[in-house]
Amino acid sequence: MIRLVALHGTGDAYLVCALTRAFERYRRREALVVVKPEHAAVPEMFGLPYEVDEEVRRYEDPNRAAMTENLINGARYFVHPSFTSPGVRIDQLTAKPNVTQADMYRALMHLPPDAPLETPRLDFEEPSGEVIVIPEARSWPNCQPGFWPELSSALTVAGHKVTVNDATWSLCELLQRCGRARAVVGPQCGVTAVLCAARFPCRKVLVTPNLPGAWWHLPAGSPFPYAYTRLFIGETYDADEYELTDHNHLETIGAVVIALGHQRAAHDPAPVALVEAPMSPGDFVDRLAILGVKSENHLSHRDYLRYRRIYDRLGFDAVVGDLYRELVAVHQETYDLFEEMVPAALGRDELSLSSHVAAMKLNQSRTQLRNEVDRRLRGASTERKSYYR
To answer: Is 355 exposed, middle or buried (0-12, 13-18, 19+ CB in 10 A)?
Structure first.
């Protein structure tokens, strides 16, 4: 038997446990997980044999890690990037696109890239209807302490029953409360990653502070896109994700309150389906413009932020910036026009010719602007509509 020692945070312990069964199959060895006392709830979620060891935290000292023998064929194996060979740490790879923390742990445990992650089968109690707010996270310093009381107050005023995470709660108690909650609001951290990966039925709202330069081991130099839920195990969940800065407290609070105020159908905790496919620059800028208008109307906020971050990173010139703003204006006009046309159509009222002509002109303008973006950025493809030639 080998003892797999899980170091550092809740998310680290979760990934070790989620891969333990695969480890036993591929390595043909029985395994026992060793965790800190506060993380005992994690192996229990998976029904794994485990030990708690207060001494584990001593090995989080980088100097001790460098002096400790760590062999996958030994009796004890420390599953953490600080125990890999000196030089470039393997966790730096997770700042690259499409490389997840689960991929990192597969590599650390000498597993193939397709080794399956286990999802714990959990029984959840009847929902309490409360909103759990988690302001503190080990991995993300609480550099915006004033935000969380303001958010809690706003949610209370909006009629929600708000409970702020109590530092005296054990991880087991916190997870039990989250399992009953209507929604959980907190930064991207081990706990919120576990809520997504283990498919807790609560609504997840991730509000993560941006600390450029604070993440010394990330080549990206910023928590984003590192903070997105997809980086944890490679799945995107139906969670709301917001980037918190010094200047957007009121905007973020308003967005969270509105999001939790929507009367949605029962939340499906399973990952959402995504299709990865190429798009032309015009497609991308057009999609960003659409998402910008939807975001202004409190829809698709997360997707807008992701597209906007890509747009800013690509550094398009001023001409493309002007074309983008024109596309936003076109889509806003289209949105306003459809606000009139759709109810009229549903009410079987006769649609006016002027509304039809206006819609056609807006679509033509959109196509022309997309084509111009593709032309300027030398897109490999572009949209052509024969009836606009």
So the answer is: middle
